[in-house]
Amino acid sequence: MSLYSYLEFEKPIADLDGQIMELKKLQQGESGGVDVAEEISRLEKRSSEALVEIYKKLAPWQKAQVARHPDRPHCQAYVDALFTEFTPLAGDRNFAEDQAIIAGFARFGGNAVAVIGQEKGSDTQSRLKHNFGMARPEGYRKAVRIMELANRFGLPVITLVDTAGAYPGIGAEERGQAEAIARSTEMCLNLEVPIVSVVIGEGGSGGAIAIATANKVYMLEHAIYSVISPEGCASILWRDAARAKDAATAMKVTAQDLLALKVIDGIIDEPVGGAHRDSAKVMETTRKTIDTALSDLNKLDGPGLKKARREKFLAIGRDLG
Predict the structure, then answer these.
(1) Which residues have C-beta within 8 Å of that of residue 58, sequence separation ≥ 6?
(2) What are the sequence ranges of the domains in the chain?
(3) β-strand pairing of 224-226 with 216-220
(4) Confidence category of residue 29, pLDDT binned at 50, 70, 90
(5) In CATH, which of 3.40.630.30, 3.90.226.10, 3.30.565.10, 3.40.50.720 is domain 65-314?
(6) Average pLDDT in the 232-258 region?
(7) pTM of structure
(8) Within a 10 A sphere around the Cβ of 279, how many other Cβ atoms?
C-alpha cells in the first residue's frame, strides 16, 4: 500500500516510493538473503530530492490540485489541534443547521475566541454530511450569529476558509444565498473585535469572502483563493472546463500571486510535499501565525480595528505599482 494518494505530477515520486516499499517487503521476508538496506537508503534519498525539486516549481494548476488533495487536513483537524474547550453552536435561528460551516467558541492559547470554518469532510460519509464544504444560506446566517455574539462579548474571531464556493442549489437560491453571503461579509466589516482568517485549502468566490473579510488574511503555501474555480472560469471564457489549467494560470490563484497583489497579508509555509505530509508541523506554524496576528491586532481599539479592516479592503487593487 502507498503511504500517500499521489497526484498526477507526483508520478516520479510514486514510482520511487513503490520501489522502496517492495524492497522493504523483501527485507522483512528475507532469511539471510541479499541486504537491500543500502539500496533502500539510496532510493529514499532520490525520492526526497525529487519531492523537493517538483515542489520548488509548482504551476498554479498543480497548486490547485495540492489544495484539493484528499488527505489534506480540513477545518475540524485544525479546530482539534489549535483550540481547547471548543463548544460548537448550531443553527441560524431561522431555518436550519448547516454542517458545511463549523462554528462556536473555544480557547486559543488560554484566551476565549470565536471560531468559524468550512469543513469539507474526509471520507464519503463525512463529505456528504458537510456538503463538501459548500454552505447554504443558513450556514452563513449561523456565522453571522456567532460573529454578533463575539462582538457583543469582545472576543476575537478566527476563521478557517476551505470551500470551492457557496452551494448553488435551487433551495439555497430560494432562501437567499446571495443576501446571506452579503450579510456575512457586512458583519465581518462591522466587527469591532480582531478577526483573522486563514485559507487552509480552497478559497472559492463569495463563499470564502463571506467569512474572510478580516483584519489579517493568510494563506497556506499551496492553498488557492479566487473569485471562481478554475473549471468554472474555463467554462465561461472558453466553454471548456478542460482548460482549467489555463484558467488557473490567468486568474492568479496562488498564495504567492495574491501576496504580490496585496490581497493577503502573509503565507504560511507548508512541509515539502504539502500539508498532508506533516499535518502536525503545519498546525504549529498556523498557530504561531494566528497568535502573532492577534497580538498585533490587540493593540488597536474597536473603532480602530473596524477602520483598518475597511481601509484594507478598499485599498485592494489601487496601488500595485
Answers:
(1) 9, 66, 222
(2) 8-57, 65-314
(3) unpaired
(4) low
(5) 3.90.226.10
(6) 91
(7) 0.91
(8) 18
